[in-house]
Amino acid sequence: MPKAFTSHEQWHSSILETVNLKDTASESSTKPTRLLYSYDNAFQGFSAVISEDELQVLEKLPGFVSAYADKMVTLDTTHTFQFLGLNTESGLWPASHYGEDVIVGVIDTGVWPESRSYKDDGMIGIPSRWKGICEPGQEFNVSMCNKKLIGVRYFNKGVKAASPNITISMNSGRDTHGHGTHTSSTVGGNYVEGASFFGYATGTARGVAPRARLAMYKVIFDEGRFASDVLAGMDQAVADGVDVISISMGFDNVPLYEDPIAIASFGAMEKGVLVSASAGNAGVTPGILHNGIPWLLTTAAGSIDRVLSGKLTLGNGQVITGWSMYPASAVVNEFPLIYNESISSCNSTSLSSFNYGIIICENGYFFDQINNIAKSSAPAAIYISDNPSIFEREEFAYPGVVISPENGAAVISYAKSSVNPVASISFQQTFVRSTPAPVVASYTSRGPSPSYQGILKPDIMAPGSLVLASWIPNVHAALLYPAIELSSEFTMISGTSMACPHSSGIAALLKGAHPEWSPAAIRSAMITSAINIDNTNSPIKDSGLNYSIATPLAMGAGLVNPNFSLNPGLIYDATPQDYINLLCAMKFTHKQILTITRSSTYTCQNASSDLNYPSFIALYTNETTATLSQKFVRTVTNVGNGPANYSINMVVPSNTNISVYPSRLSFSSKYEKLSYTLTVEYNGNKTGEVVFGSITWVDVIGLHAVTSPIVVAPMIHTW
User: Fold this and answer.
1) pLDDT tens digit string along 131-187?
2) Are strands 103-108 and 74-75 parallel, antiparallel or unpaired?
3) Is the predicted pLDDT of residue 7 greater than 90, yes or no?
4) How much is the pLDDT for 24?
5) Which of 391, 423, 455 represents a domain boundary (last residue)?
6) Are 400 and 325 in the same domain?
7) Are 392 and 341 in a shared domain?
8) Are strands 358-361 and 331-338 parallel, antiparallel or unpaired?
9) How far apart, in whole angstroms, are the C-alpha atoms of residue 372 and residue 359?
10) Which CATH number covers residue 342?
């Protein structure tokens, strides 16, 4: 910034005056070029409303780096903490004092401050380093913040610039969508007893880091969602002094130097702030995840071992537990059980002729079937399916239960063989310890990362399906057919948006336990301690690919393991310069790199695509016969309590040879660094084959196992 200016905002305003091409004598002179935001924390720059001609003038000014048009952003509990192993007796919760005094900034749709999740019972004074405010606005005043919800701000200048005549319906940090209330309470909500979703999943709700402080930055409004506002929120969060940023949204099909989250998170990383982001909900197609950014934590979504149930009782006494989320306290008692092959797909207009009993549906599309059953006025239905997307669904508006094909065969046999078959269904039951769990969610977006394929993304998986968390009263939490809206203080939602705050909360706990750790160190601890087996001691399966074994392109290193991440043994650290070396190796132009780094002092003398990352991906061109040989050099830091000796264990991918040199690492002291080289040699003959394995550095006395996934995969075509 030139010395003539006292602030970045003053400087940026001066620049805009310089490029203003409007006729000062004209009527339009009353509407000068408008500065929306001046950014100077997470990165340096500004957002403004300017014409194409003014942009051309701006591009010729000294110091100009880059410009791009504003973009739309995509938005991506009672038991999840138990499923992850968090407990009050030992491990990460007590070691971190439950995240006490760690500040998490949530970039989202706002917050409903009256929710019991934001009460500050048991909280001590606000950390003195906090610089944020509780910004008043429509239906929101300063008194709504407290020692739990310590700050709220809102940013909508981008929305207003896109539609100058628009009226913002809720011009404050108050949530009118529900997404932000759900994600923030998942990160760090306080204890709420008696939480449930209409009788399902009853228990004490709490966030992953229940003693962490929360700050909400509302950047999503009913009227729009724009990159300039997201940037402003992230920039302000860094200035306010947050330790972790949780952002459950992303931008698709943009390179790193045009991705607002990539740009802002680089500056956050430089200042020691870990950014945790969602992978997206685009499904199983390879290479469509977003937020595959090398300097942040990217989270995929999986299930937990909780089943929301309806109990089906047949007239012969057989009891079958199925899946249901029907939100009413009801019992469908001893109705005739109807099986007719001519209508069993439940898509027939003839259904109304059979509406005197419980209809058995099979071989159809569940979401159409339940609607057709409701229209027929049948009392209930039994749906026979193992389609995984059904069990990620958040609404069940009409009485019914979903059962497996195996159980379905027994029900059909009874219906056919009995003279007067009957059945009953009851609801609002919950069971835990179901198997297998976790499984990768069918909707979670898959790698490789189109932003940069040379880093394995996603990093980890966290619970994302049917997560129970706080909700807002003016948006329905459930529906009853035909259009009865039900409100609830808590609701269940599925998505990587729900997985991300689990990771953010764990990162906050780790920051509380290890305040000296860098964002890269925290991410490393989470990756190398993750679990790749389910609760049947088998490899985690992928529900989106017929329950085949999940690859790291779907789940990263596996399910995040909070307690093991507390004491990982070794970490893979990285500095801002390491990321700059990576950017240099990406063949970006000087200005493109400068857009991300904001510094012209860097050089590309040490350009390297071999970032010190705790995972490995080797890419081949997708041909009939594929071969490759690739070397990776990694440096690990001993964060154990003293001297340590490690040896290597390997799970070698098929059609691949793996070598590690040296095969033993001997550390004489804590914080000592040692390096090793991993060589991957692949010789495959299947087009599109993805193979995977891992290496594990094992402490010879059995205290630590530091695992890094290895993937060999075909390159994807990007923009």
Assistant:
1) 999 999 999 999 999 999 999 999 999 999 888 889 999 999 999 999 999 999 999
2) unpaired
3) no
4) 44
5) 423
6) yes
7) yes
8) parallel
9) 11
10) 3.50.30.30
Amino acid at residue number 324: S
Q: What is the pLDDT of residue 75?
A: 56
Cβ contacts of 392-395, under 8 Å, gap ≥ 24: 392/303, 392/441, 392/442, 392/443, 392/465, 392/466, 392/494, 393/325, 393/366, 393/367, 393/494, 394/325, 394/466, 394/491, 394/492, 394/493, 394/494, 395/325, 395/478, 395/479
Q: What is the DSSP string of 68-79?
A: ----B-EE---S
Locate the DSSP E strands across 362-453: 380-384, 400-403, 422-431, 439-440
pLDDT at 503 over 90: yes
The answer to whether residue 248 sits within a structural domain is yes
Domain identity same for 113 and 229: yes
**Chain segment 306-341, per-residue pLDDT in tens:** 999 999 999 999 999 999 999 988 889 999 999 999
Pair (369, 331) in one structural domain: yes
Tokens 């100009």 sit on residue: 64
Would 585 be classed as within a structural domain? Answer: no
Q: Which domain holds residue 691?
A: 570-574+611-714
C-alpha atoms less than 13 angstroms from C-alpha of 285 in its C-beta half-sphere: 9
Q: Report the alpha-carbon distance of residue 631 to residue 25 in Å, rounded.
A: 66
DSSP 434: -
Residue 595, domain member (yes or no): no
DSSP assignment of 107-128 equals EES-B-TTSGGG--TT--PPPT
Write the DSSP assignment of 312-354 as a string of letters: EEETTS-EEEEE----S--EEEEEEEE--TTTTTS--GGGGGG
Are 282 and 148 within one domain?
yes
Q: What is the share, in percent, of the chain residues with pLDDT greater than 90?
A: 76
Specify whether 553 is located in the same domain as 663.
no
- CA separation for the pair 447, 556 (Å, rounded): 9
Residues 6+ apart with CB under 8 A from 533: 539, 540, 558
Specify the CATH number for the domain of residue 530: 3.40.50.200
Beta bridge mates, 634: 676
- Residue 194 pLDDT level (bands cut at 50, 70, 90): very high
Residue 279 inside a domain? The answer is: yes
Residues 146 and 287 in one domain: yes
- Express each pLDDT in 569-627 by its tens digit: 999 999 999 999 999 999 899 889 999 998 777 788 999 999 999 999 999 987 666 78
Over residues 482-506, the mean pLDDT reads 95
Instruction: Provide the pLDDT for residue 66.
Output: 74
**Closest-CA residue to 526 (of 465, 568, 574):** 568
Burial 419-444 (b: 16+ CB within 10 A, else e): eebbbbbbbbebeeeeebbbbbbbbb
CATH number of domain containing 670: 2.60.40.2310
Which positions are annotated as active-site residues?
108, 179, 497
Identify the pLDDT of residue 31: 47
User: How many distinct structural domains can be found in the chain?
Assistant: 4
Tokens of 678: 């991993």
pLDDT at 77: 55
- Tens-place pLDDT, residues 10-32: 777 777 777 776 654 444 443 44
Burial class (CB in 10 A: 0-12, 13-18, 19+), 124: exposed
The four Cα atoms 523, 529, 530, 533 give a dihedral, to 10 degrees, of 170
**Are 640 and 628 contained in the same domain?**
yes
At which of 565, 591, 622 does a domain end? 565
Tell me the angle at which helices 496-513 and 179-188 cross, rounded to the nearest 10 degrees. Answer: 30
Phi and psi at 411, nearest 5°, equal -65, -45
| Nearest-angstrom CA–CA distance, 463 and 278 | 12
639-690 tens-digit pLDDT: 999 999 999 999 999 999 999 999 999 999 999 999 999 999 999 877 788 9
Tokens of 331: 């019992």
Q: What is the pLDDT of residue 71?
A: 65
User: How many angstroms separate the CA atoms of 487 and 483, rounded?
Assistant: 13
Identify the pLDDT of residue 509: 98
